[in-house]
Design goal:
The protein is an alpha/beta fold. Helices cover about 35% and strands about 15% of the residues. The protein has 11 helices and 11 strands. Helix 1 packs parallel to helix 2 and helix 7 packs across helix 11.
């Protein structure tokens, strides 16, 4: 496995909890890290912008104290997601705070910028960049990213259309560094499958929306528990970038999921509704195709326990 040094010996499972717009906040991130997987959140979830510093201080202090009090536990580091796109007018502010508080991992999206990577490297942090095509992957590594997150078909929120087999295969032809895989992964067997096809870590988001710590409405959590892969709709209407969303939330907004217009990609807006009155993430719920494995709202610790049991069982069966 091509794990970054910062993760060696600190993971219970080869798993990173994906950053979830609106949903991820310190309570969820801390629960993930304490359970032995990387927890993450989008910097833009901290609003007003000044709140980001409070969150970073809380995460650093709480995880440091927890690790000291529990020397036998695997306590994972946290990650901060930065949208590296001209529409994000907070990027410089948020990046400076990540440097100040030495965020261990930064996940970059929608733009590969060497200056951002250099800033994180200045204190020893690492950068993982999410991509949907091999050409994006190559550009990210050229710009100094330490690892890649392959966002394949079926992933929640902004996602690509390539099969995970194809996307990982293309990247592994030339890149032997840290590689994460996202796309419909919601049980332990799927985590092992991600490794079997060449990824080092699985990248899971939707399953963590249906946890008690997640900052999501009960209706959103219930829709995930009750939903299946067929309930996911792929569209660019709500932000200008194609992504996967829960059919129920689109219907609740008075729209027909089967007859959605196309949005103008030049008018990307990641906090509102693009060309739609419905607001992405708040009214229109991001979700991946793997939710058929989710049948109850549980704590993050319970979810990770379940994933660990399934992962161990799948690995034992595979080895036999």
């Amino acid at each position: 496995m091509a794990l970054p040094e910062i993760l060696n010996g600190r993971l219970r499972l080869p798993l990173v909890g994906a950053p979830l717009f609106i949903v991820s906040h310190p309570a969820l991130t801390l629960a993930q890290c304490k359970a032995g997987i990387v927890g993450s959140f989008p910097a833009l979830n901290a609003r007003p912008a000044e709140q980001l510093e409070e969150w970073l201080e809380e995460l650093n202090d709480e995880l440091s104290g927890f690790a000291k009090a529990n020397p036998g536990r695997k306590v994972a580091p946290f990650a901060v997601n930065q949208i590296v796109h001209k529409s994000n007018n907070r990027l410089q502010h948020d990046l400076e705070l990540c440097v100040k508080h030495r965020a261990p991992i930064v996940i970059t999206s929608l733009g590969a910028v060497q200056e951002v990577n250099d800033a994180i490297h200045s204190y020893g942090g690492i950068v993982l960049h999410d991509i949907i095509h091999d050409r994006h992957a190559r550009k990210a590594i050229e710009k100094g990213a330490d690892g890649l997150i392959a966002v394949a078909a079926g992933a929640g929120g902004h996602a690509g259309t390539l099969s995970p087999f194809a996307l990982v295969q293309d990247i592994r032809r030339w890149f032997d560094g840290p590689l994460l895989l996202s796309g419909a992964i919601a049980n332990g067997g799927a985590i092992l499958a991600a490794q079997a096809m060449g990824a080092d870590l699985a990248y899971v988001g939707s399953a963590f929306i249906a946890t008690t710590e997640a900052r999501a409405s009960d209706a959103y959590k219930d829709a995930i528990v009750e939903g299946r892969a067929a309930d996911i709709v792929y569209t660019n209407l709500f932000t200008g970038v194609h992504g996967n969303y829960l059919r129920r939330s689109i219907e609740n907004s008075g729209l027909d999921p089967d007859n959605l217009p196309q949005s103008d990609p030049s008018k990307m807006n990641f906090g509102s509704g693009g060309n739609s009155a419905a607001k992405a993430w708040k009214d229109i719920w991001g979700c991946g195709q793997g939710i058929g494995a989710i049948d109850a709202v549980v704590s993050t610790a319970e979810l990770v326990d379940r994933l660990a049991i399934e992962y161990d069982a799948a690995r034992k069966a595979f080895c036999e």
